[in-house]
Design a protein that fits this description.
- By secondary structure, this protein is mostly helical.
- The chain contains 11 helices and 4 strands.
- It has a two-stranded antiparallel sheet with strand order 1-2. It has a two-stranded antiparallel sheet with strand order 3-4.
- The chain is globular and about 45 Å long.
Length: 194
C-alpha cells in the first residue's frame, strides 16, 4: 500500500512540475545544462557583446548575425552596464522559451525599442528586421521570402500604430500582436532565432 501511494504521489508531482516548468521557468537540469554552456563560453560568468556575436556567428554561419547579436545583447543587458550575467541571460531565456504570450511580447517590445525610451519607431523596427534578414542569410523564412524588410515593416507599423502618432507604445504593440495571427507568426521568429 505504501509503495502504491508513493508511486501515485510521484506521478502526480511529476505532472505538476511538468506543467509548471512549461509555464514558467526551466527545471533544474535545464538550468545546469545552460549554465555549463554559459560557463564554457564565458568562464568569467559574464558575457560581453563580442561573445554574443561569436555565439551567434556559430548559430547562423550562413548569414551575418552581428547586428542582431548587438540588439539582442542590449535586450539581455537589463541594467545596461555592457555585460550580461548568467542571471540576466536565464531571465531572458526563460521568458522567451517559457513565458506567457504577454511576457514574450513584452520582451520583444524591449528588443525593438532600441534606445529604450518606451516607444518603437519605424526606424527601430526596420533596423531589427534588417538584422534578422541579414542573420538568416539565404535561409530566410518562407513566410518572409517575398517581402523586403522595408515593406514588411510598413505593413507591421501601420497595423500597430493605432493612433497614427508615428510611434508604437507597449500597449499598441502587445494589443496588435495578440490580435493578429500573421504578426504573431513572424514574432515566432524569435523562438527559432534564440
Amino acid at each position: 500500500m505504501h509503495t502504491h501511494t508513493h508511486t501515485h504521489t510521484h506521478t502526480h508531482t511529476h505532472t505538476h512540475t511538468h506543467t509548471h516548468t512549461q509555464q514558467t521557468l526551466f527545471n533544474h537540469k535545464e538550468l545546469q545544462i545552460q549554465y555549463r554552456g554559459f560557463k564554457n563560453e564565458c568562464p568569467s560568468g559574464v558575457v560581453n557583446e563580442d561573445t554574443f556575436k561569436e555565439i551567434y556567428a556559430q548559430f547562423f554561419p550562413q548569414g551575418d548575425a552581428s547586428m542582431y547579436a548587438h540588439f539582442l545583447f542590449n535586450a539581455f543587458d537589463t541594467d545596461h552596464n555592457g555585460s550580461v550575467s548568467f542571471e540576466d541571460f536565464v531571465m531572458g531565456m526563460s521568458i522567451l522559451l517559457r513565458g506567457s504570450v504577454h511576457e514574450k511580447l513584452n520582451w520583444a517590445f524591449n528588443l525593438y525599442d532600441i534606445n529604450k525610451d518606451g516607444y518603437i519607431t519605424k526606424e527601430e523596427m526596420l533596423d531589427i528586421m534588417k538584422a534578422i534578414y541579414d542573420m538568416m542569410g539565404k535561409w530566410t523564412y518562407p513566410i518572409l521570402k517575398d517581402e523586403t524588410p522595408k515593406q514588411h515593416v510598413d505593413i507591421f507599423f501601420q497595423k500597430m500604430d493605432k493612433n497614427r502618432d508615428g510611434v508604437v507604445t507597449m500597449d499598441e504593440f502587445i494589443d496588435c500582436c495578440q490580435n493578429d495571427e500573421n504578426i504573431m507568426r513572424s514574432m515566432q521568429l524569435f523562438e527559432n532565432v534564440i
